[in-house]
Design a protein that fits this description.
This is 15-hydroxyprostaglandin dehydrogenase [NAD(+)]. Its EC number is 1.1.1.141, 1.1.1.232. By secondary structure, this protein is α/β, with parallel strands linked by helices. The protein is about 50% helix and about 15% strand. Strand 1, helix 1 and strand 2 form a beta-alpha-beta unit. The radius of gyration is 14 Å and the shape is globular. It binds nicotinamide-adenine-dinucleotide (NAD).
Length: about 140
């Protein structure tokens, strides 16, 4: 898939695998919205990414992916800044037996992100019309 000019949202993008996904997408000339619960780490990561890949190519939105309103905020901020959404990397996740309720709301519920935040469907419909298939990872 040609990635140049595509717009991606990476949940849990402030650290770990999400940060690595963001770097790879930016290297391939995508614009990236890093969406993460950890504001401090998020701000630090986007400063790093802006320095490496350009001020205008990265955005940070603080968000809890288990919160419907936060997901809408991420979608709206990304469209406002970059004009559209082509790729969603649904990466944010947690582990730990003692936090099992939180684990279910973050790891399991977000598998149904299109139902939780129907706005994300829009990019698939748009992309069907314009001949590019949106990507959910
Ligand atoms: N690293 C592995 O070996 C491995 C193996 C299997 C699956 N996974 C899955 O891959 C994903 C990333 O793993 P990782 O090792 O990079 O994890 P990590 O803990 O290093 O990073 C997770 C990121 O998600 C963010 N996050 C946590 N809860 C959030 C929430 N509710 N809303 C928004 N952001 C939130 C954290 O702040 C953090 O920046 C997770 O879903 C994990 O379960 C990882």
């Amino acid at each position: 898939m040609e990635l140049t000019g595509k717009v991606a949202i990476v949940t849990g993008g402030a650290s770990g695998l999400g940060k690595a996904f963001s770097q790879v997408l930016l290297k391939n000339e995508c614009k990236v919205c890093v969406a993460d619960l950890n504001q401090q780490e998020g701000e630090k990561t986007i400063q790093e990414l802006k320095k490496a890949f350009g001020e205008k190519n990265v955005l940070f939105v603080m968000c809890d992916v288990s919160n419907e309103k936060d997901l809408e905020k991420v979608f709206n901020e990304t469209v406002k800044t970059f004009g559209h959404v082509d790729i969603l990397v649904n990466n944010a996740g947690i582990g730990g037996e003692s936090r099992w309720k939180e684990v279910i709301s973050v790891d399991l519920v977000c598998e149904f992100i299109f139902d939780i935040c129907p706005n994300f469907r829009i990019f698939l419909i748009r992309d069907k019309i314009f001949g590019f298939t949106g990507l959910l990872l």
